[in-house]
Amino acid sequence: MVKGVDNARVLVVGAGPVGSIAALALARRGVPVTVLEAEAEIQQDPRAATTHPATLEMLDEIGLAGKVEEQGLVAVEFHFRDRPTGELIAVFDHSLLADDTRFPYVVQCEQYKTAALAIEALEALPEGEVLFSHRLTGIRQTEDEVVVTVETPGGEERLSGSYLIGADGGRSTVRKELAIPFEGFTYPERFLVLTTPFDFAAERGYVFRTYFADPDEWCNLFKVSADGPPGLWRTVFPTDPEDTDEEVLSDDRVQARLQKFFPKGDEYDVIHRNLYKIHQRVAARYRQGRVFLAGDAAHVNNPIGGLGMNCGIHDAINLAEKLALVWFGEAEDSELDRYEVQRRTTAIDYLQAQTIRNKKRLEEKDPEIRRRNLDELRETAADPERARQFLLATSMIASVRRAATLG
User: Three-state DSSP class for 110?
Assistant: First the structure.
């Protein structure tokens, strides 16, 4: 390929899990693809890790599910607990989905591992190309092609493609270049993520995914495999909007948060601490001509329930399927409009609604509403069919089934 001359390929901006999986799914279907990544390598930041059953099914279709499972941890159950009383409120067992999916469990695998696996598989295909240290700075499109301006180690270059997928995160340059509004809101509080090697399973009996409801300060606790046994545990807390970053991240405050939820005789060994602004936003459009948005470039949400990365991967697979059909003349261009109908509707009706509801359930302050919420969780978990329906939603199987009926 001569850069800037041969446009018979799809350009993908962003080598995270969404961009890399979109590229791999296209290349496996015989569509030439070039991934442009601004960073010099995949960033190993402690972000999303939960991979739901519906996503594992999609990853299996492109040869990644087994590898993701090898590098992650299998979590069959997740628990809801009440922090003030210490009560275990509800146990949800994915085994109830055995007739609904080949993967009746969740895999805890950090997103950078999933992205690395997809990049490795992509680079092994003749249709795949990955260019690191290539930062997108501009987009121009015509009826026939998309031309991008890119900063590279060798200077500014122009590359062209037949289509472009913007999978470059919540601050997406692609979305901004297209002037697509990012509609929604930002929470006043930030979320604090603390990572520790303390073994909450052995010492406290907690499963790999546990949610603690508390009217003052809720917490999510989950385990990742990290670099191998014994793995690491991550906690997620809300923070006071009035506190400075320095106050929130200080040793004293970090230890106080952990001791409040998980008191023990000595201090915790905290090996990572990260503070994030949290948004609930959806792009006004997912398609503009030959350019598409996917993943965080198209939608962002709070992390409670682990839905964001999964929804982005669903975007990637959905779009790749449709692009491949159009690419090989098996469908009209209008097939690509269904991508926006299906995935944007899912982001609004499911992803945004569910994650907002998840947060409200954990932080509810009104005693009566709080009691009703916890009672509903108890009753749902105790009834196998209600529990199955609950799990079909949380595992994202229900949202995928509904999306297939749209457009």
Answer: coil
- Please state, in angstroms and rounded to a whole number, the distance separating the CA atoms of residues 78 and 94: 8
User: Where along the chain do its domains lie?
Assistant: 10-75+102-183+280-360
pTM recorded for the entire structure:
0.96
Query: Mapping DSSP to helix (H, G, I), strand (E, B) and coil, where does residue 257 land?
Result: helix
Residue 234 main-chain phi, psi, to 5 deg: -115, 140
Task: Report whether 197 contacts 230 (CB < 8 A).
Answer: yes
> 129: closest CA among 19, 55, 44, 39?
19
Per-residue model confidence as pLDDT tens digits over 36-81: 999 999 988 777 899 999 999 999 999 999 999 999 999 999 999 9
Task: Residue count of the chain, please give it.
Answer: 407
Among 2.60.40.10, 3.50.50.60, 3.40.50.880, 3.40.50.1820, what is the CATH number of 10-75+102-183+280-360? Answer: 3.50.50.60
SS3 state of residue 44: coil
> How many Cα atoms occupy the beta-carbon half-sphere of 113 within 13 Å?
24
Taking the C-alpha atoms of residue 349 and residue 71, their distance in angstroms, rounded to an integer, is 32
Residue 268 to residue 258: CA distance in whole angstroms: 8
User: What does the alpha-carbon distance between residue 397 and residue 395 come to, in Å, rounded to a whole number?
Assistant: 6
- DSSP bridge partners of 13: 36, 166
Residue 7, SS3 per DSSP: coil
Q: What CA–CA distances, in Å, run from 76 to 24, 95, 97, 259? A: 28, 7, 10, 27
3-state secondary structure of 107: strand
Identity of the residue numbered 192: L
pLDDT digits (tens, 9 = 90+) for 170-196: 999 999 999 999 999 999 999 999 999
Q: Tokens in use for 396?
A: 């994202």
Shortest CA distance to 354 belongs to which of 392, 298, 401?
392
* Alpha-carbon span 255 to 263, nearest angstrom: 10
What are the tens digits of pLDDT across the range 2-19? 333 357 999 999 999 999
How far is residue 356 CA from its own chain's centroid?
15
Nearest to 160 by CA among 145, 174, 175: 145
What's the gap between Cα 61 and its chain centre?
A: 19
Enter the tokens of residue 194: 């603390």
